[in-house]
Amino acid sequence: MINHDRLQNKLTILADAAKYDVSCSSSGGKRDNKGGLGNASKSGICHTYTEDGRCVSLLKILLSNHCIYDCAYCVSRSSNDVERAAFTVEEVVALTINFYRRNYIEGLFLSSGIFKNPDHTMSRMILIAKKLREEENFHGYIHLKTIPKAAPELIREAGLYADRLSINMEIPTPSGLAKLAPEKDHQDMIAPMKTVRDEIVALKDMRKTIKSTPKFAPAGQSTQLIVGATAETDRQIIDVANNCYKKLQLKRVYYSGYVPVLEDSRLPAIGTAVPQVREHRLYQADWLMRFYGFQADEILDRQSPFLDLDIDPKLAWALRHRHQFPIHIQYAPLEMILRVPGIGSKSAHKIVAARRNERLTLEHIRKMGAAVNRAKYFIITNEHNPHLHQLDDLDLKQRLATGSHSKYKQALSGQMPLFT
Question: What percent of the chain has pLDDT over 90?
Fold first, then answer.
């Protein structure tokens, strides 16, 4: 028989401890409930997007916040004086099924502190996913955090039940990790990523000839990098992300501005501002690598290892490479149109399709969704463009920075409560 008061207490502790993991969460929500419906400011339920673009709600919890490690940046570190709790396997299964039946959630995001040892922790998490799939016939989304140093056979078993696997690298460089988490090593995180990559590739190939081959982590794998806890440059962070995409075939790299909540001489002091704009710029740089054909070493050079906080990285690149502009929108290759500030991926493809039948003007491009207030300095169209002569102006950056209106908001992640 489940003690509901005790379970509620565990839920409060272990949902709150999970909120710092952004690798599967909504962001920017800070809407307190003041008498209306819903609440996006507290812990427990987060949102993620499926491959086809649907937004689904997940129960986001830790299995336990007991941990044998003492990572300086982690609220669950062994030396931190916080209330501890641990779910049983049956409790997590019951919570997931009950919340699903109430239509609160469509899946489970399960992470954990490492208790006893990595294999024991990973085995408990696998058991939860296995019970959900095989005993409860649960077909909702499951995201499992793999545990560093867990045996490869356990990682392989986890992928048979989970839609997505992930393991957080946290600190981007080996030197930074050694400073803040001397018990860990980057290779402890990279090894299971390689196992997941190899298994996805092997089973995908096998499925071409044996249709009954089971699926393995069909939503791929992801990781999270903490920004600002140590002295890594943006260039180093982008290089790590680039390797994750190219060598480990990750689906996503998440960036999390460090939130100073712990007293430690190795960390930024409590009260230090969370580097949210820097985090935002890294996400923009990430999109350039994944969707716009930019190589990592194009986004930043060795002499300027930090992203410009005043303007987005695509505009920064264009201003550093003015000699490659203006381009003629009627004839330029898609690869160069994608590099024009203010023209997104969808607009670029619309332009290429439309110009087969039409002589394009700035008004046409505006109607396709492009931000013409930025693009107009970099493109030739089939009409007189008086803004082209300003391309080489020294104050163009300042003019564009002043005129931009970012949708980015200075807000921390928040999640909905469970019982309202």
Answer: 78
Q: Report pLDDT for 129.
A: 97
More confident site: 420 or 209:
209
Structure tokens at 52: 């086809």
State how far the Cα of 134 lies from the Cα of 223, in Å rounded to an integer: 27
CA distance 113 to 84: 10
Quote the DSSP letter at residue 272.
P
Cβ atoms of 343 and 365 within 8 Å: the answer is yes
Cα gap 368→352, rounded to integer Å: 11
d(CA 416, CA 320): 43
Report which of 162, 238, 171, 226 is spatially closest to residue 200, judged by C-alpha positions: 162
Q: From CA 152, how far away is CA 146, in angstroms rounded?
A: 10
| Cα angle for residues 414, 124, 12 (degrees, 5° grid) | 30
What's the pLDDT tens digit per position in 130-178? 999 999 999 999 999 999 999 999 999 999 999 999 999 999 999 999 9
Q: DSSP characters for 354-414? A: HTTTS---HHHHHHTT--HHHHTTTEE-SS--TTGGGTT-TTHHHHHHHH-----------
Pair type for strands 327-328 and 107-111: unpaired
**Strand pairing class (252-257; 327-328):** unpaired
Helix and strand numbers (H, E) in the chain are: 15, 9
Mean pLDDT value of segment 314-330: 97
R_g of the chain computed on alpha carbons: 24
Taking only the tens place, the pLDDT of each residue in 231-275 is 999 999 999 999 999 999 999 999 999 999 899 999 999 999 999
Beta pairing, strands 221-227 & 164-166: parallel
How many whole angstroms separate alpha carbon 304 and alpha carbon 344? 25
**Closest by Cα among 365, 381, 287, 280 to 326:** 381
The residues, ordered by sequence, that sit 6+ positions from 117 with a Cβ below 8 Å of its Cβ are: 68
Residues in Cβ contact with 125 at an 8 Å cutoff, skipping those fewer than 6 apart: 63, 110, 112, 144, 145, 147, 158
Of the candidates 144, 107, 147, which has an alpha carbon nearest to the alpha carbon of residue 220?
144
